[in-house]
Amino acid sequence: MTSTLTLAENRAQRLDAAAQAWNERLSADPANGSLSFTVTGSGTGAVASDIKAGRHTFQVDEPAPLAGDDAAASPVEYALAALASCQIVVYRLYAQQLGIQVDDIKVTANGDLDVHGLFGAAPSVRPGFTGVQLDVQLTGPESTERYLELQRVVDEHCPVLDVFKNPVPVSVNVLVSGR
C-alpha cells in the first residue's frame, strides 16, 4: 500500500533529512559548516539592477520618489524580504527539531529609513534602517509557552536576523576599468 504525502509532510521529511545530514557532516568535521554565498549585480539603467544569486536572477529598482522606475522591489525591501523569509525557514527548521507543531507562519517585516542619511542631508542620520520590526504570526495547537520557546531558539539561530542585529565586517574594493 502506498501513501501519498502532503506537501507539508514531504517538506518536513526533507527538513529532517537535511538537518540530520548537516549534523553528521558537522560532527565529522566542524570545518564542513563553512559556506560561502556570492551574488553579482549589474546596473541596467538609471537605477535598476540585474542580480544573479546562484542560478536565480531577479531585478532590483527604486520607487519613483527615489529616482527609480519602480520596476521591481527596492534593495531595502529585498533586505526585509531576506529577513522575513529566513525567519520562516528557521521557524520551520526548529519547529521540526523541537517537535512543535506549526501549521502556518506569517512574517511581516517593517523597516524605517530616514532619507536624510541616504542623501547626506544630515550627517548624524545613518543611511540604513533606523529600526526594524518583525511580526511573526504562528498558527497551531501548541501552548503559548511552546511557541515562545521556539521564538527564543529562532532568535538565537536565524542568520539574517543576526546580520541585522550585529555588525558584520565588510570590505569594499572598487575596480576602475576603461582608462
What key phrases describe this protein's structure?
5 helices; alpha+beta; 179 residues; two-stranded antiparallel ribbon; three-stranded antiparallel beta sheet
* Total count of helical runs of at least 4 residues: 5
The main β sheet shows up as:
3 strands, antiparallel
Number of beta strands: 5
Label the structural class: alpha+beta
Q: Into which percentage range does the β-strand content fall?
A: 15-25%
Percent helix, as a range, is: 25-40%
Mean pLDDT: 90
- Side by side, the strands of the main sheet go 1-2-3
Global morphology: globular
The unreliable regions are none
How large is the radius of gyration?
A: 20 Å
Q: N-to-C terminal Cα separation, in Å?
A: 71 Å
Order of helices and strands: HEEEHEHEHH
Description:
The protein is built from five helices and five strands; from the N terminus they run αβββαβαβαα. With 179 residues, the protein is α+β, with helices and mostly antiparallel strands. The protein has a three-stranded antiparallel beta sheet, with no helix packed on it. It has a two-stranded antiparallel ribbon with strand order 4-5. A hairpin with a 2-residue loop joins strand 2 and strand 3 (56-60). The radius of gyration is 20 Å and the shape is globular.
